[in-house]
Protein: DNA 3'-5' helicase
Organism: Marinitoga hydrogenitolerans
Amino acid sequence: MEEKVFNIKRNEYTIPEFFKEELDDEQLKAVINSKGRSLIIAGPGSGKTRVITYKIAYLLSQGIRPENILLVTFTRASAKEMIERVKNVTNVDTSSLTAGTFHHICNMILRRYAKVLGYDNNFSILDSEDSKDLMRIAKNEYKGNLTKEEAKQIPNEGVILKIVGYAANTLKSLREAVLDVAPYLIDVEDDIEKIYMHYIDLKQKINAMDYDDMLVNTLRLLETNDDIRNHIASKYKWVLVDEFQDTSLVQLRIVEFLSSVHKNLIVVGDDSQSIYSFRGSRFENVEDFQNHENVKLFKIQTNYRSVPEIVELENYLIPTHSIPKKLKPFRSSFNIKPKIVKTYDELEQADFVVQLIENKFNEGISPEDIAILYRSHSLSMTLQQKLDARKISYKLLSGKRFIETRHIKDIMAFLKIVANPFDNISWSRVLKLFPGIGQKTMTKITKEFYTNLMEYTTPYDAFENINLKKYPKLKDIILYLYENETENPQDLIDYIYLEFYKEYLELNFKDAYSRKLDIERLSEIASRYETLDKFLEELALSENIEIQGAEKDRKVEKITLTTVHGAKGLEWKVVIIISVNPGDFPNGMALKDKKLDEEERLFYVAVTRAKDELYIVKQLTGTTKPYYGNSFYIKQKLPDFTDKIPKRLVEYWKIGYTE
Ligand SMILES: Nc1ncnc2c1ncn2[C@@H]1O[C@H](COP(=O)(O)OP(=O)(O)OP(=O)(O)O)[C@@H](O)[C@H]1O
């Protein structure tokens, strides 16, 4: 391949000529002039990925070495994609560049320095299901000390996790978090705090961190250890952050520390697309970042994604509290206006959408180019039934993560007790798979095992010395695993599956076949890792997009159904947004909590996913005009997003009723 960008050896630090062909003026300025503390505000479809890619290419062209660059992205897939693109553009080996999500970067730091914080470096990572299990244990043990009446007031583990996760990410006190997330629980705040303390204890006992701990602990490490912070930060001459609008306060502080020596912190994002406040993302990060002294601001506003008719409409939907921007369309017109479609009720809405999709298929549009977006999952149920009835295949983007499905978690639990014999949650999962073992026996076995562990040097010996005459299979399997713990993870999975789990699946699951395929897929993924620790670590930090379950019919082309949150960063030729009714979208609960801003941003994200055709579908009988027993009702007049759209920009369709 020709030497594309520059000649480092000859010390020629000029702007590569072809940059000017690949980037528009605003993009080029951002790429070349961003330094120090810089904020690049990128409108939807304006080429954020391209700007980051070329920024890195530019830095390399200026003699910066890949290992001195840190790139933080929202998903690992996008980190990989960007690094690959940089490599293609520059022809430079980018393997020493650090790139990944916040959790990956924190994991990398913590594996080296966890001891400083009182953990072993081989700590395990609790995924969200594990955290739930552990929080349930903490909650139930605490509830044991309460009266029946008191116990009734305690929320479930999911709610508690939501509150403490929010507190961790926003660096707020638990009290503030309760007030923000679930003010109705303020009377039991004290109990929540005690349960949380107990949860922290349980985690430490098993040497584990949950996802929030990884962030908070990294911050603590950097904040309280000057030497370590300086050592890490001196490596990163440039720190780049993508999707900055969805970072939390903890994350902002982490990248500020990581760039504290060389002070080059370039953040890219769109304040109008900040949609994760419920898990601690802080819209205000953009504003705070901008208010800092000597910050450089860049705007990139040409939209390469959508036809001019859609871009024009987007300009009217820019959320109220946004940095001022005006999107300019790049593409030429098809002369098709976006549609606002009024239907009578949910059933007629579903009929309309199915008909529309069939028409699009007839026009030759591929299913992969069509998406249906909605504010929350429940709004898609009727439509799913209709699609099933018409045999239209669809994929749901926001389902359970592959690694959180029951069968995958079962297999992983075996591996986790090999990697960390103190992992109580995984022990309970494993033991309960064996016939005849209930809560009592399980506690007895683990208790004995832990006592033995004090006495014997290896987990193998500790397990060997438990009396398990009644459960010979269990004994064989666990002993085999401890004996072969250094084998590669694939061999261990295959062993567990063939010796035990295959039969378990056949006996217990109607859909054993597709679950078996998933386990084969897990085994295939495991073959890429040499050690068990590395495999477990990578899997806990992986995202849904990277690991798809092994569906039988993966080859069938499908339309996409997703919540707007799941559609972040994606695009389709035809986008249909359903149930844009006051109370549904914008969501009534969010409005009650005075979160109209975020609803506006969500709607903006939804609309800006469309490349060629956009349909905004509403019902006469939405949530606020209850139908079929839907009882949610708010007295105030709720805002209707379609009111913001000038009539001349859209075509109105009325389906199935007359006013
Ligand atoms: N200078 C350019 N010339 C031509 N096409 C471009 C240019 N910059 C970006 N594009 C194209 O525009 C499209 C949108 O870019 P990208 O997906 O990076 O958008 P984005 O800024 O991440 O959008 P969003 O925030 O809405 O998800 C891509 O197909 C990209 O190749």
